[in-house]
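Researcher: Please generate the 3D structure of the following complex. Treat every line as part of one assembly.
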Amino acid sequence: MKQRHTASSVGIKRRENLQYYLMAAPFLLAFFVFTLLPILQSVALSFFDYDMVSMPDFAGLKNYVRMFVDDDVFGIVVKNTIIFAVAVGPAGFLLSFVLAWFINEFRPTVRAILSFLFYCPSLIGNAYFVWQVAFSNDSYGYVNSLLLSIGLISEPINWFKDAHYVMPILIMIQLWQSMGVSFLANISGLQNVNGELYEAGAIDGVRNRWQELWYITLPSMKNMLLFSAVMSIANSFSVSAVAVTLAGYPSVGHAVDTIVSHISDLGTVRFEMGYASALSVFLFLLMVAVRWLINRVLQQVGR
Amino acid sequence: MIFEKFKRRPAATGLRGSQVRKYTRSRVGNFFYVCFLLLFGAFSVLPLVYSIATSFKPLDELLLFPPRFFVQRPTAQNYLALPGLLSNLRVPLLRYLFNSFFVTIVSCILYVLAATLAAFVLAKSPIKGKKPAFLLVQYALLFNGTTLSVPLYLIYSRLGLIDTYWVLILPNVASAMGVFLMKQYMEDAIPDALLEAARIDGAGPQRVFWQIVFPIVKPCVLTLTMFGFSQAWAATGGNTVFNETLKTLPTVMSQITAGGIARSGSAMAVTVILMIPPITVYLITQSNIVESMSSAGIKE
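Model: Done. Output below.
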């Protein structure tokens, strides 16, 4: 039998590998042209002065130095980005797992209904407009008119223009929106856990649902957890659209301006593409560092 | 009652019918548990209810003080006003409708197929270079897209894609999220031994993919279909489509909202109408997930 491992077997192997390459090609090609190439160009642009009209002008590390020495709002936007990331990232990640875990125990119809309810904010693009109505600055806003009618406040609060309130409100809205991709990924991940493992666990002395979760469920869906963690990082570090729509840019006292809001402002209003790109690279490195940390944490799961 | 069914479904977890779960909870625990879920559910469904309620409000209720969340005297006038508002569009409404469905369906199919095939290769093939390729895919997700619009525009125009359907379709196919999701799912769901056995039986990559891998990952395929659909459905084409006959439904929306408060009821009506396709697809895919999950018992 051993001799057959020769010419024909190598030929089959080569043909199979070719098939694999062909199967991956459509995505990889599109990914390279429309995702990777623009990213590489953007990284390259971070070393140039580029106003989108004249030719890029090589600037070396100037853009990177500028962040730290010559940008008044840089410190503020980094601080706000980290506040959002810390408040929304872990909580959103946990919430999307815990809710998926909870509803996993219901029968299919109830589960489908509950997951639809939770997923609603993501299903309806820019659904956060409902908060704009709720927290509207005049006495017509739902929150203001409620607080006025029970006498808690004497005049309407301008929620999105008040540095005290705008950050907590936006964190709440972000959390409300965090039942997105990771939530559905967790649902399908949970349903994938092999039931025989639970039986084996019961025999091996798993005593309650928390032990079951830690020793069986979580380790069986480690890969899915990594996916939701990465998506949570990407989302929580990129808070911007909601903040800019509801609170404007610059927001009151830069209270909710983030790195991404700063980047969009530089890129679309001030036409400083080189500097905007450098900030994107900075944000990317920040997320890569957090991603590395989370990987370390996930390796502890089930130990 | 919900409580009576408050145990894992035997089919999906692989438990035989006779083996019932051992851990039970107190009634008080169950009560708080359901309360929490219902509260959070109510909180989440708010925008949907509000949008639908508002789309049926007559003008005077839209301006009511103090504002009321629910509609008092529902009227269909916001919906009935739509044909009039839409009659003076430069392009017939049907064309926008066609564009939206065409672009969404084509990019959805291409997105899911390309992502699933590539994820299979990245997760389960022996070929060289799959590890670095997957790292690139993962890290690309962490790069914020804001500064990419200029390089992307240059690439589109270099390839002659500006003002074609392709510029609305191809970027969806390139999205790294789907491959990442699908690859992680395959790692958790498909035992290597199963594929090894198929290979020994003489099945090539194509057959292994279509006959073994694809049926197992069907739930994830459906989830991805839903993402792909709602993503493409919401896309406007931005600064890459100028030809009015190629634009999609969201542009019609912006023409109606431009009318100020008097039209806010009609704008809400359009919002509600635009929500219907993604919600329909969500419900279809979710119910299928439930179905195919209980029938897919291939676990070694």
